[in-house]
């Protein structure tokens, strides 16, 4: 029996350890088409490379069917879903984006996320779409970002457990068939996640990033959210509070409701 094809992408780049773990888990059940950014593309949102060429090259490893794209996560997903891409291969039946280094919770972070944006391309194409993110302790985030998520045994265990949970979730989504509405399932995994960690249906927390740039000298500012962001109090059913409880947050991003009257 032919296994379904799943398009896998991310925003941390094709050399991310978290992507490698996800691919290793997914390829047990699916045929994969991995199309990921050549370089880290965090905080790019749903941006496209409108001016200039986008290079696409085969990438060794990752199951042998991987391509590196010198562009954004949305570029990657859009290119990977092109019917003319990879001639002779069946088209993807789902898009899985991640696993992201760090969480993607609350409205401003979700809107800024390249991980969520790549999954959104799948949703807009009428496919089951899944965005995956892994909570990382703040004091270790920058060091792990520099290594692509490598070098931390406890975190590696978390990511493998998260990837296993993502496989089961992906199988369930595909079994439901093509969704009637453009929906992204945004999953955020806590530290210490296991096969028994509860999944909670959550909603986006309402937060404000405030000033995102720190002045270095006259006329020069640098992105400085990690040094300044503070999390305001939120309701118990929000994605952020779910993560704080040590549970898996599952937020359904239903884009068909964006024009609804309130």
Structural features, described:
The chain has 262 residues and is α/β, with parallel strands linked by helices. The chain has one domain (5-204, 231-257): Survival protein SurE-like phosphatase/nucleotidase (Stationary-phase Survival Protein Sure Homolog, Chain: A, 3-Layer(aba) Sandwich). It is built from eight helices and eleven strands. It has helices at 17-26, 73-80, 107-112, 114-124, 138-146, 153-176, 225-228, 239-244, and strands spanning 5-9, 31-37, 56-59, 66-69, 94-101, 129-134, 183-189, 199-202, 213-217, 220-223, 248-254. A nine-stranded mixed β-sheet has the order 3-4-2-1-5-6-7-11-8, sandwiched between helices. A hairpin with a 2-residue loop joins strand 9 (213-217) and strand 10. Helix 1 (17-26) packs across helix 6 (153-176). The termini are far apart. The relative contact order is 0.15.
Task: Offer a few descriptive terms.
single chain; 262 residues; alpha/beta; Stationary-phase Survival Protein Sure Homolog, Chain: A; two-stranded antiparallel ribbon
Write a brief caption for the model.
The chain has 262 residues and is of the alpha/beta class. The chain has helices at 17-26, 73-80, 107-112, 114-124, 138-146, 153-176, 225-228, 239-244, and strands at residues 5-9, 31-37, 56-59, 66-69, 94-101, 129-134, 183-189, 199-202, 213-217, 220-223, 248-254.
């Amino acid at each position: 029996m032919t296994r379904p094809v799943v398009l896998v992408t991310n925003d941390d780049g094709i050399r991310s350890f978290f992507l490698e773990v996800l691919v290793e888990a997914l390829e047990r059940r699916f045929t994969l088409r991995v199309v990921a950014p050549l370089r880290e593309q965090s905080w790019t949102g749903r941006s496209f490379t409108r001016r200039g060429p986008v290079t696409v090259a085969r990438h060794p490893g990752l199951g042998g069917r991987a391509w590196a794209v010198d562009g954004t996560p949305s570029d990657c997903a859009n290119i990977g879903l092109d019917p003319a891409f990879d001639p002779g291969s069946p088209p993807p039946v789902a898009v899985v984006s991640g696993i992201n280094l760090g969480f993607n919770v609350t409205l401003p972070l979700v809107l800024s996320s390249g991980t969520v944006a790549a999954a959104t391309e799948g949703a807009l194409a009428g496919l089951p779409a899944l965005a995956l993110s892994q909570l990382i302790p703040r004091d270790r985030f920058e060091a792990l970002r520099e290594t692509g998520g490598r070098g931390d045994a406890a975190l590696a265990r978390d990511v493998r457990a998260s990837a296993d949970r993502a496989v089961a979730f992906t199988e369930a989504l595909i079994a439901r068939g093509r969704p009637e509405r453009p929906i992204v399932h945004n999953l955020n995994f806590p530290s210490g996640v296991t096969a028994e960690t509860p999944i909670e249906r959550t909603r986006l927390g309402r937060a404000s990033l405030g000033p995102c740039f720190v002045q270095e000298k006259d006329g020069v500012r640098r992105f400085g959210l990690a040094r300044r962001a503070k999390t305001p109090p939120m309701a118990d059913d929000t994605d952020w509070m779910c993560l704080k409880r040590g549970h898996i947050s599952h937020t359904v991003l239903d884009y068909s409701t964006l024009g609804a009257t309130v």
